[in-house]
Amino acid sequence: MYPEFVQLLYCDSVVNFAAFDKKCVDLLRRLDEGNIIFKAPKDWMEIKTIDMHTGGEPLRVIVDGFPSLKGSSVLEYRRCIKENYDYLRTTLMFEPRGHADMYGCILLPPNDDDGDFGIIFMHNEGYSTMCGHAIIAISTLAAEMKWINVKEGDNVIKIDAPCGRIISYVNVENEKITDVRFSCVPSFVIGLDRTVNVEGLGEVIYDLAYGGAFYAYVDIRKNQFQLDLTSENYRTIIENGMKIKHAVMIKDKEIVHPYESDLSFLYGVIFIGNPVTEGIDSRNVCVFAEGEVDRSPTGSGVSGRMAIHYARKEISLREKMRIESITKSVFICSVSEEVNYGPYSAVIPQVEGTAHITGMNTFVIDPKDPMKNGFILR
Ligand SMILES: O=C(O)[C@H]1NCC[C@@H]1O
Q1: What is the arithmetic mean of pLDDT over 78-100?
Q2: Are residues 49 and 89 in the same domain?
Q3: Digit-coded pLDDT (tens) for 108-166
Q4: Nearest Cα residue to 349 out of 365, 361, 363, 333
Q5: Residues 8, 136: one domain?
Q6: Domain check: are 150 and 204 in the same one?
Q7: d(CA 69, CA 133)
Q8: Which atom of ligand 1 is found nearest the CA of 131?
Q9: Which of 121, 159, 288 to mutate for ligand 1's pocket (most ligand atoms within 8 Å of CB)?
Q10: φ and ψ at residue 216, rounded to 5 degrees
Q11: If we measure between CA atoms, which residue out of 301, 133, 112, 144 comes closest to residue 217?
Q12: 325 pocket-lining for ligand 1 (C-beta < 6 Å)
């Protein structure tokens, strides 16, 4: 026997689409939610999310049902989630609720009263220190949901990420969000033209830089191995990216943040190549965490790139670079100022992009489900 709402929808022939639409609306109005919305038993956990993407890269924003984290700063909350609730990260990021390239975040109080909110990022391996695509998405959401007082023009949001304070600007024109840009934390170069031997690839030349997270930057055009930075070549990109990441992690002992040991690790490898789209300056394909490929041009990754290009004198202050991703989505990037950061001459990068809401989820977790905490197939 069909459930009542299916019977009602399909009992007449559906010839007149206008009538059909109206019927759906009436039906949904008439049906008490009980008929189509699953009510989880009391011992099941329920977590609500709003799902988004920035340039194709997903962001699952956890908005309700997550246990409250203990701490008084974003880094303390990050330690708390790591130690106590990592099973919920895998539950929400891994299959069957997510996938190998899923990305998420959870919102928290800011580090001090001056901030709007804090944020922790999560992915298939753990918790990153910075995420530009998530900053663009969450700023969009904050404006869409009126978590901030939205006015025409630039709306400033102060977000405390694990790497520090990020300032984002949501531009609103005629009551519509047109774009979001953010000023990243001080970003700096650790080394240019380093080399590492990688099995199957030979000697790989890379730059090491920080843009809220540490990346090894591999310009394909400077290297001997061939790698086509297109989606058709997705698996080879992951394979090569992870090989280089592991080799650099073993070889390079300088992946140390000047102030915070929690930030001192290599997050990913960024392949740089020629753009395929006219009017774009460069292509950026980031392999991060446990072999995730960023669908966006990687906000933290292009921040580190701004430091590299500035150090090489390839860009001047406020000069804009358009960088595309593997999906051809674009971030517009520049350096807004020079600053000193610990022992480093650093820059403040600005990154601009757009994000969209894709849906809302109420996830339920059945304690009897043997796969309740997720799994990944690649
Ligand atoms: O845009 C970014 O910075 C992020 N996107 C996924 C990997 C990075 O954390």
Answers
A1: 98
A2: yes
A3: 999 999 999 999 999 999 999 999 999 999 999 999 999 999 999 999 999 999 999 99
A4: 333
A5: no
A6: no
A7: 24
A8: 3
A9: 288
A10: -100, 125
A11: 301
A12: no
Catalytic, 131? Answer yes
Q: Are 161 and 280 members of one domain?
A: no
Q: How far is the CA of 299 from the centre of ligand 1 (A)?
A: 6
Is residue 375 situated within a structural domain? no
Question: Is 101 a pocket residue for ligand 1 (Cβ < 6 Å)?
Answer: no
Whether 288 lines ligand 1, by a CB cut-off of 6 Å, is yes
Q: Which of 130, 135, 266 to mutate to test the pocket of ligand 1 (most atoms within 8 A of CB)?
A: 130
- Residue 203 inside a domain? The answer is yes
Are residues 30 and 61 both part of a single domain?
Answer: no
Averaged pLDDT, 317-324? 98
Q: Does 367 fall in a domain?
A: no
- Coil, helix or strand for 180? strand
Specify whether 89 is located in the same domain as 28: no
273 and 237 in contact (C-beta within 8 Å)?
Answer: no
Total structural domains within the chain: 3
Q: Is 54 in the pocket of ligand 1 (CB under 6 A)?
A: no
Domain that holds residue 20: 4-37
Say yes or no: 196 and 136 in one domain.
Answer: no
- Does residue 250 lie within any of the structural domains? yes
Contact (Cβ atoms closer than 8 angstroms) between residue 9 and residue 26: no
Q: Choose, from 131, 163, 184, 333, the residue flagged as catalytic.
A: 131
